[in-house]
């Protein structure tokens, strides 16, 4: 298929602009998504969530069984307003 989005720093090309944007983080070293447990950085939120699940047993639910959000930099076990 056609890959019109070319990296200016290497030979890689992509079919979506968003994929090129993620790829560019490899060159810049940018890792904006940080693990809530160990602060390891990731270029993609999905990779951070997978790490949290595999390395730390994070399930995405609190003790009451309701789903929780994991905003960047916030410990999922801290409940605000209680």
Automatic annotation (TrEMBL):
GO terms for molecular function: DNA-binding transcription factor activity, RNA polymerase II-specific; zinc ion binding. This is ZN236 protein. It holds the Pfam family zf-C2H2. GO terms for cellular component: nucleus. Its main location: nucleus. The gene is Znf236_1. Residues 5-32, 33-56 form the C2H2-type domain. SMART domains: ZnF_C2H2. Keywords: Metal-binding, Nucleus, Repeat, Zinc, Zinc-finger. It is found in: Nucleus.
């Amino acid at each position: 298929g056609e890959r019109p989005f070319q990296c200016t720093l290497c030979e890689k090309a992509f079919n979506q602009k968003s994929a090129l944007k993620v790829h560019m983080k490899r060159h810049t070293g940018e890792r904006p998504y940080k693990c809530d447990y160990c602060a390891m950085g990731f270029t993609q939120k999905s990779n951070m969530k997978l790490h949290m699940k595999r390395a730390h047993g994070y399930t995405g639910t609190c003790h009451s069984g309701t789903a929780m959000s994991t905003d960047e930099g916030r410990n999922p076990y801290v409940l605000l307003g209680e």
